[in-house]
Amino acid sequence: MATAAAVTPAAAIASAPTVPIGPPLYVLNNVLPFEAPTLSTGMPLPIPGAPNGPRYVKGKLLPTNMVPAIPVDSALPSTHVSTPLPNPLTSGNIGTPELVSPGSELRAATPGADLGAPINRPEPGHLPVLLMPSAGVSAPDIQGDPDATALF
Fold first, then answer.
1. Dihedrals φ, ψ of 49, to 5°?
2. What does the pLDDT look like over 70-106, one tens digit per residue?
3. Which of 47, 82, 89, 116 is 20 to 30 Å apart from 27, CA to CA?
4. Who contacts 75 (Cβ-Cβ below 8 Å, separation ≥6)?
5. Sheet with 149-151: strands ordered across
């Protein structure tokens, strides 16, 4: 059971939809005095989730969470950048520095809004009391664990 729980996050990252991107940087070989870098990465495809809709709270006239925040799940795809480093003294290369970033999970939420009514809830035998109108905005949220390693 513990093994299945440990494998699940890695499987979710691997199965997250991405569009591979491999820009043709080799065309720069005609312009640059050294060999062009190589880049392989991907573009994440965000998947919107179900918003936590408005809720009625006892004693309030308007529901809370009137404009709900929408959760969005995605994955940051793995990225690999490398370029041969020319040796200024000879015609060879010193080495190939690389920048590698493994894929990671990404969660985000859009901003939401909450409004307060300018009157309170009417009670039997009493008129509603005027209140100061209120409004609130929930901050957008983003959570991820990006990582990168430089190799030479």
1. -100, -175
2. 999 988 888 999 988 888 888 788 888 999 999 888 8
3. 89
4. 12, 13, 16, 18, 44, 103, 104, 105, 106
5. 18-21, 38-44, 79-82, 98-101, 149-151
Residue 77, classified by CB atoms within 10 Å of its CB into exposed (0-12), middle (13-18) or buried (19+), is: buried
Cβ-proximal residues to 136 (8 Å cutoff; 6+ apart), any chain: 113, 114, 115
For residue 8, count other CB atoms closer than 10 A to its CB. 10
48, 32 Cβ separation under 8 angstroms: no
Which residue type sits at 49?
Answer: G
pTM: 0.60
Q: How many CB atoms lie within 10 A of CB 64?
A: 14
- Asked if 146 and 104 count as a contact pair (C-beta separation under 8 A), the reply is yes
